[in-house]
Amino acid sequence: MKLLLRDAGIGIALLLLILFFALTADHFLSPNNISNILTQITINLILAIGMTFVILIGGIDLSVGSMLAFCAVVGGSVLTVPDLSVFQAVSLATVAAVGTGALCGFLNGWISAFWGLPSFIVTLGMLNIARGAALQVTDARTIYSFPPSFNAFGSQMIYGVPVVFLIALALVGIAWFVLSKTVFGRLLYGIGNNEEAVRLAGHSLMIYKIAAFTIAGVLVGIAAMVYMARLNIASPIIGIGFELNAIAAVIIGGTSLSGGRGSVIGTLLGACIIGVLANGLILFGLSDFMRQLITGVVIILAVIVDKYRERITAA
Amino acid sequence: MKTNLGHVDPVACTEPAPLLELHGIRKRFGGSVALAGVTLSVAPGEVHGLIGENGAGKSTLIKVLCGIVKPDSGAITLAGESYSPQTPRDAKARGLQVVHQEFNLLPFLSVAENIFIEHLPRNALGVVKRRDMNMRARAVLDAIGLKDIDVRWPVERLGIAHRQLVEVARALMTDSRVLILDEPTATLTSRETERLFSIINDLRRRGVSIIFVSHHLDEVFRLCDRVTVLRNGETVTSRRIGETSQDELVRAMVGQQLQKEMTHSIESSARSEKVLSLVNFRHAESPHEDGVSFDLHKGEILGIAGLVGSGRTELLRAIFAAQPPLSGTLLRSGKPVSLRSPRDAIRAGIGFVTEDRKEEGLILSMPIAANVTMASLADVSRGGLLDQRAENALTEKLGTDLKLKYGGPGKNASTLSGGNQQKVVLAKWLARKPEILLLDEPTRGVDVGAKAEIYALIRRLAERGLALLVVSSELPELMTLCDRIMVMSQHRIVGTLPRADYSEEKILTYAYQGEKRQTGH
């Protein structure tokens, strides 16, 4: 119940933002612009879903941007293997990209859980490792000329809604189900709130920590496939700073950075707020610099609001 | 004779105006009442004992006085002026110092740096005048008789008792009018306790008022001029030391309700099957190679008494494999088992109610139902999917069993009072239907009503055949509940008392004996 109320507050903030831009910016509500916003949100949303799992257990993953590049160049290399049917190429590439993400995520989780290291440091290391690996395997070159039907899929719309966004929405649904309806999800919340209590209740912390980071990695792999489908390239230098946008979406969505509180629905709303804000400010004719500045302000405001909410619920 | 009736009480006549006065101090934390009206008055140069059971409100009261916690209502005056410190710094500025029970020293800094941490002597450039500081620290330590400590040593090199005395030295650095000592002797050996007492007497002569919080009534009688008893966050009585007795104070601390409960002693103890036996069981904290050995029987309530730091909690944690043991054998119903993690222990039918409910027992910001089922999620789920209805049903069933007072299974555990939170922890383990339950300070921070209920529950569980191992710092609690009491000291079991031989004196004698033997070496 409490979580729903929390999400409702963020939802209202999003609606007010939309209302504001609808009244002040021309074309904001035009179907074209809406598809545009949804497309732009998609990658960040997929990354932020995975980030939600990690932040819920009190961790952080700084490596998702670099991992995106690494997953993309691995997937992209498979996509461009000659003599494969489109179906074969796409499925093998998906397996390769998602597998790469899962492996990196597993390492993040295993290293931090096994040695009891802060995930901040471990994923900072992975940030460099994945980026270095991406540059190494491609020799710093960009991979392109993917199967045309793959790209067509990337810009496919259903009633003006991008298919890739629908995929992201489906992932939100799955993540919501896992987090709120399963034993696994319950324990992730438990670990984020009070690790020791969960351990003394007979649960292995390591498995759950590794799982959360691995899930984040899998989602990076999926995001990498979506990225290639949309932009038709895989480059080792993509995704720089994407981790920060993903973290911002999670935090604006009301998930506590110290873990244990929050929801993936909040993350969806948080990603939408970032996307709507970016789009609206550009329609206003503000520069990208101003957009970045204002997004920063919103992140800080979100944390302040959260602090107050915490105090009110604690009292 | 009529003139006598009009006579003012001679004691009141000679009494100087109080230095510190508290009136009707109240404080709530969430659902639980910590202070329910404390009244206290301390005269200048008086050593005032403050006693009460665990959870009676002593610690909260100290936090109020030193500016960590703001009271909800009530008035305090210090030297005739209103006193409401906003921060510990405020409190110090007004001349009120506290030596806390938990250590506030910085382990990697030197003894001298710790003593002067609040006002390090500096030269014009802001550089610490190390020689000056060390010399002054030396003088302070000499004054309290700590001649054998080098002030340049990092604090981590000192033993617990010496750290406590360094804390006292630090408090003495500033001229204080009121000095609060929170359980200062808990970690001291008898020699150091004597030393501390002479420091206190010295301060008393200089007109400093001292509030002395202690569990040890004999110390209170030796040292204090007056004593105030707290129970359930209220002042029960405040007496001159010459006008009261230990018995009277114990009665005041324990209260009527428990008094009744305590007379209901159970004599039944079926010494049948040994469900748990330790043979030379040793954990990493224990200095003794041969560890400890004892048996726990089916349906038995076995108590473990001992001073703080005697290794009681560590033993329970090792049995539960929260910290895996080093060596020795653990027999579960006669069969040797190797428990490597709490998971193993739980599978072997052991439950563990930890000392620290908030840090280890509960997830306060999660629903009551989630807390109750935390150790038995397999019972309320199918194929990894939670069955909300089964979870609520289990919670409600155990809630009724344990007389849990709660808003509903979906309410957060933080909404409960201390006693009800403890019942949730108990429910979590009872949901697993354990055969052995380890309880560490099961009634800490629990009000008297809930305490009696928890006692009754523990007995009921024993009658059903559960074996219970209870660690408690409250001797009356152990003497009420247990069929046998083991006394621990320095990680050894120094004595075992059958019910017929119970007395606080005997238990404490054992507890201190081990202590002295250790320091004698």
Secondary-structure blueprint of this entry?
The complex is a heterodimer of chains A (315) and B (521).
Chain A lengths: L1 H23 L6 H26 L7 H16 L6 H29 L4 H20 L4 E2 L3 H7 L2 E2 L2 E2 H19 L1 H18 L4 H27 L1 E2 L7 H11 L11 H20 L4 H27 L1
Antiparallel strand pairs in A: 1-4, 2-3
Helix pairs in contact in A: 1-11, 2-7, 2-9, 2-10, 2-11, 3-4, 3-5, 3-9, 4-5, 4-9, 6-9, 7-8, 8-9, 10-11, 11-12
Chain B lengths: L1 H4 L4 H5 L5 E10 L2 E11 L4 E5 L6 H8 L7 E6 L2 E2 L5 H6 L2 E4 L11 H5 L14 H14 L16 H14 L4 E5 L7 H16 L3 E5 L3 H7 L2 E6 L2 E7 L5 H18 L10 E9 L9 E6 L3 E6 L5 H8 L7 E6 L2 E3 L4 H6 L2 E4 L3 H5 L6 H5 L8 E2 L2 E2 L1 H14 L16 H13 L5 E5 L7 H16 L3 E5 L3 H7 L2 E6 L2 E7 L5 H17 L1
Parallel strand pairs in B: 3-8, 3-9, 6-7, 7-8, 13-20, 13-21, 16-19, 19-20
Antiparallel strand pairs in B: 1-2, 1-4, 4-5, 9-10, 11-12, 11-14, 14-15, 17-18, 21-22
Helix pairs in contact in B: 10-17
